[in-house]
Amino acid sequence: MGTNEAFVADIGLVGLGVMGQNLVLNMARNGYKVAVYNRTKSVTREFLDGPAKGAQEIAGAETIEELVSMLKPPRRVMLMVKAGAAVDAVIAQLKPVLSSGDIIIDGGNSFFEDTVRRARELEAEGLRYLGVGVSGGEEGALKGPSIMPGGSEDAWAYVSSVFTDIAAKAPSGEPCCAYLGPDGAGHYVKMVHNGIEYVDMQLIAETYFVMREMLGMSVAEMQRAFEEWNRGELNSYLIEITADILRKIDADTGKPMVDVILDRAGQKGTGKWTAQEALELGAAAPTMAEAVFARSLSAMKAERCGAAAKLPGPDAGDGDGEAGRLGPDAVTLDDLRKALYAAKVCAYAQGFEVLRLASEEYGWGLDLGAIALLWRGGCIIRAQFLERITEAYARQADLANLILDPYFRDVVTGGQEAWRRVVAAAALRGVPVPALSSSLAYYDSYHRCELPANLIQAQRDYFGAHTYERVDRPGWFHTEWLADGAEARSVPVG
User: What's the CA gap between 374 and 146, in Å, rounded?
Assistant: First the structure.
């Protein structure tokens, strides 16, 4: 470091955490020269002397100024730092040493509204800004992540080759990377990806719990079931790693590794953001919120254990002891597979509903089928059935809901009896399945022409004169509910 006058880099990267380091190695492997900088200088030195040792395409800088001096114009600087204040701090350092037309790329998990603000502010100062969602974890960053860029379309033209080259490739060979839209579109899509990820993980965890608590399966039996499911329609990264996890034995105790891990799940906020955005947009996404609440409940470990000693549940009964069945309810392992797939479809439908409404609200023009293509490789929710989602939107670009597509309609309707058996049996046994049951309630609400909201409107009009609509004539009406007599009169309003 400090002697890089002859090194001319294609791109600079700030923030050498594991994700940042692996992205740099990925870029270098694909033939790009990368200048790197980390606030803690020792981290840069350790990277250059360790993972990047001998890589002629990588050079380190001791200061932001030196990093920028090593870049060819227009300068392209990617930030891989913690979302929030850290991003703003690095941008403040960069602005005085960048020139008009230079490009800043935020590759972290920034909240989309922050990205919108930064894009607006930087463009007013002559700089270009991209908010780029990167999914796939440490391995994806190294071998090929799913990349979701948004922001300045003009800037995208200068960085597209880098990102399409380092991105994961779908089975068809297409890169899992494409420009999504202006300002915060890329980070928004990544946020919803993470919201779906929360749901997917919760559904799989509940399935594991039903296997254990209701079907009496051993960890080895569960491992074989998930491994088998991964060969079929449920094929996905999360099912695959679940089978891998259940195979591992703890070296200290000889027990399955999963049995020695405390049941307290963490979260970094992107799932919560997705649930909050669904509420802001008026999108029906109950299972996305339920997955966040489930993590919150899991974090209350001490409180839950205290409640377990005081609050009774149902009498579990002895069952009939037959492997893979639950007494007279006859819940089978195949029932559970069908329930998981149907619930998963409804959860993804909710995620794509959030994207559809956001695209309309923010004027992004998101291509929902193309987004599904970006998630076929590299990312955490990559799954075989994402191809089916792309096909669904190819058949009908303005599809109101994913479960109205013929393929997904058949999955949900064909699996609903098994799904109902699983949810009902879990409720009777006191086994919590909030995501499985929330998805089912979503489906039942969506396909009902009538819901009990008429009573809610009457209540709102009673206590707040909020008015209501009638089924037999147009307009808005109010009733004086406290008037004498049983007969009520609708009075037109407005």
Answer: 6
